[in-house]
Amino acid sequence: MLSYIHIGVLYFFLLLVAAPVFGKQAIVLVDGKSTVVDANLWHQLDETVDASTVESLNAHKSIEEVFENASNQYSSYEKPSFEKAPVMPTLGGTSGSYFTKVTFDIARQGQYFVIVNANFIDVGLASYTTSNQPAPRLQVFSQSDDDATPPLLHFQAISLHTSTDDERVELWLVIGAKQFPTPVSVTILDEEHFYRFQKVNNGISLAGITAMLILALLAVLIYTGTRKRVAITCAGYLGFHGVGWTAASGMLSDIATLSVNSSYWGILLFPFAIACAAQFVSDLFECKTKHKKLFKFLNGLGVVSLVLGISMWFLPFTLAYLLSHLLAMLWIVTTIAVGVGMIKQRDFRAKYFLAGNLLYSLSLGYYIAAHSQYLGELPYPESIVIFALSLDCLCILLCLTEWFKLKQKEFNRNQYMSRIDSMTQLGNRFSLSECVQQLADYYVVVYIDLDGLKRINDEHGHDEGDKLIIKTASLLQQSFYAIGDVFRSGGDEFVGVLQAPSAMATQDVAEKALALMSEVSNDLGKQWSDAGVSFGIATSLETSMPAECISLADKRMYQHKAKSKHPRSG
Questions:
Q1: Phi and psi dihedrals of 542, rounded to 5?
Q2: CA–CA dist 444, 516 (Å, integer)
Q3: How far is it, in rounded angstroms, from Cα 202 to Cα 251?
Q4: Predicted confidence (pLDDT) per residue in 117-141, tens digit
Q5: Among residues 154, 278, 434, 454, which one has the fewest Cβ atoms lying within 10 Å of its Cβ?
């Protein structure tokens, strides 16, 4: 196991023996900042040095004791291994342990910060000397042991201090990781520029991650209220992205004390997010019933993503990293294709879906460009990806709300159709039952039977009979519009339910209904000589329950039909 004594030995020989190997000119800060690009910058650490098992510095009282112990116990260390350390063209796409020496000329005394542009750092050690302070100062900046370094999401920062003007700083860095996704440059900033960068970088990332987690929580709350699977798959889509970036940014290790480097978890959790996303898209666009081929594809993609998500925890991280990025590219192509396809089919739930995924795709393109050796570094690549992803998650939640709006419209339409007679557009027997349940103390019921319908059907056809039913419904609705509602309770039967404000007014409403029914019967006779209506009227003053009132009106309707012996009956 490599302790800090071993690291002390490493620095001891780097400073005394290997230093002549690094003959690069000192970097001068321009406007308070300067960047050393990753081009033949890093040297590969000897394989005999296991930089992944560094122990805590807390076990030692001071760096001076580390060097003193190192000189006594490890004086026979193999010096040529550092002198012959191979130079790496770039660390992008590599893994392992590397070291470098960077020299800065700093014009003014004060606090400075060095940012190492690496997402995953299992081992991070820095030692620097100045022209006025030759004693080395050691800092640990690994992901799991960076409490003494400034908090900076996605990166690691080292603090430097110069006590006088015009000082030269010699900085030695040792880093180790399972994967360096991009070239690892080294940037030094003065205090003003660093805190400005920290504020923007951390602020954007915190806002984006918080938004993802809150939106995931909202989706969970929607699921608890609706029990619809589309809501819980949406929550998984948003939640796994939020938790993954919380880990990948280093925030999780800042919040909780973990014995492992949790920044790798962002890659390992990504397939679970895609598994949920595939099911969410399938549910969102109702692929099981409307797009069966797409349903099979998304179902298969979800299963593959789930298997990858489980197996990648047991694979070498380099392979897991590759698989996760291949899955990401496949998902981007899939979402854009699905979004465009649904827009073409005029499924406007896809407008938010497509917009969010286009934005996310553009941010990934920016991220790749920012870490290429050809375009150079662009500002805040990880934060921009997180911010774009949070907007994508917002669009996804908007898709979910559109899905529920559509379902609500369908439900309302079905509810409406279940209560409305399709021929006459009057309320049906179900609506009549609901109306009766809500009746107040005073009301009038008119039971109506259409006379002459059978004869007209026999002599003129059912189309003419349907016209008679529709005309009767229209006349009744016009007549009762101001005082109540009318329902079609059967083939040629209608029921009017009229409200009365008081007991005294109930009889007035009944008399008005009698007059209106006579007018309806006369109007029908003008168009169909064989048509008319028989009716019965009952009031709440005569019965104790609405059902009894309807029954009494029905009985009086038959009495009216028998008494009048209407020549047009039948």
A1: -95, -15
A2: 13
A3: 10
A4: 888 898 888 888 888 887 777 788 8
A5: 434
